[in-house]
Design goal:
By secondary structure, this protein is α/β, with parallel strands linked by helices. The chain has a single domain, classed as Ribonuclease Z/Hydroxyacylglutathione hydrolase-like (Metallo-beta-lactamase, Chain A, 4-Layer Sandwich), CATH 3.60.15.10. It contains eleven helices and 15 strands. The strands form three sheets. It has a seven-stranded mixed β-sheet with strand order 1-2-3-4-5-6-7. A six-stranded mixed β-sheet has the order 8-9-10-11-12-13. Strand 1 and strand 2 form a beta hairpin. Helix 6 runs antiparallel to helix 7. The N and C termini lie far apart (62 Å).
């Protein structure tokens, strides 16, 4: 229900980005302290892009928005990807508004896998983390996070946004872009007349989104991220509406800057791999020892994504032992 606190949050944070498009950051209890949702005027109602994480505070804020800014109704809900700060309240909003949810089936499959509701999925996740060097206490804690905070209720009925599809939302005609790397089939919306991109987590300013290898989802995350950067670079984008932080103007060079960042990171991983190491050992070597679990998880899966790329390109070799997997550099 809406509260004085939720009303104050909306009054303080809701902003118009361009005519007919509004941004509202939603609170987030872990990692980054917020995620963005967007409202695009759609005829007599509004299209929602992303939904925020499921929490009492976020539900209260949505109650304030639905009885205020969105009082004319919700026409559709577009979800960029399966992470809980984007998909989290899609099912709840669908039940309240009756609006259709647009999301890729690959993202829903990954969201189902993340919940570890099947014992075999939990066993596979534990084996994956343990083999790659994560300490046992961190494996237990990670499984707890996946079953708890990361788990999302899946919308009961969904529609599939296809790559290249034209999606008219009010005054804007968006092109659907399906991108890989950060997630298996993340949806972004590009609007050529305004040169605007609703990017989800694919194009963040100041930081690169986590590109991680998991036992589910994107099977070749860094390679697919590079391919997606090529797609994005081919569009004339001047305004990015990202999943985190503020909206920003761009000169079109960010895709190449992101590519350069990861190529530099590949060099660092290869150079630091001076002896046989597990991925977790290499993550500590490159990123340092994080105090919080979230960053230790992200460091491990990002290291694995880069090791996979290096292995595929012949720069490292992988050795699968009985209980652990090790990596070692190949002499140039």
């Amino acid at each position: 229900m809406k509260t004085p606190e939720s009303e104050a949050w909306v009054a303080r944070n809701l902003e118009e980005v361009v005519p007919g498009v509004r941004r509202l950051p939603m609170p987030l209890d872990a990692g980054l302290n917020h995620s963005n949702v967007y409202f695009v005027r759609d005829g007599s109602g509004w299209c929602i892009f992303d939904t925020g994480a499921d929490s009492p505070a976020t539900r209260d804020i949505w109650s304030s928005v639905l009885s205020g800014t969105l009082t004319e109704g919700v026409t559709r809900i577009v979800v960029s990807h399966h992470h809980c700060d984007h998909l989290g309240l899609a099912a709840w909003l669908q039940e309240i508004t009756g609006a259709p949810v647009y999301v890729r089936p690959e993202e829903l499959a990954t969201a189902n896998a993340v919940r570890l509701s099947d014992p075999s999925e939990e066993a596979a996740a534990r084996a994956f983390l343990g083999r790659n060097g994560m300490p046992a206490e961190d494996v237990d804690a990670t499984v707890g996070v996946m079953k708890g905070f990361w788990a999302c209720v899946i919308p009961r009925e969904t529609r599939v946004p296809e790559h290249g599809q034209r999606m008219t939302i009010g005054r804007y005609e968006f092109e659907v872009m399906v991108t890989g790397g950060h997630s298996v089939a993340q949806v972004a919306l590009y609007e050529p007349s305004s040169r605007m991109l609703l990017s989800g987590d694919q194009m963040l300013e100041g930081i690169t989104s986590n590109i991680g290898l998991w036992p589910f989802g994107d099977a070749a995350p860094l390679a697919n991220f590079f391919k997606s950067l090529d797609e994005i670079a081919s569009r004339d984008i001047r305004l990015v509406l990202p999943g985190h932080h503020g909206c920003y103007r761009t000169d079109g060079r960010l895709p190449e800057k992101l590519r350069a960042h990861h190529r530099k990171r590949l060099t660092v991983f290869r150079e630091r791999l001076g002896r046989k190491m597990t991925a977790f050992e290499l993550a500590v070597e490159v990123f340092g020892g994080f105090q919080d679990l979230d960053n230790r998880i992200l460091a491990l899966v990002e290291t694995l994504a880069h090791l996979q790329w290096l292995e595929d390109h012949g720069s490292v070799v992988r050795q699968d032992g009985e209980s652990a997997t090790w990596y070692q550099s190949v002499a140039p």
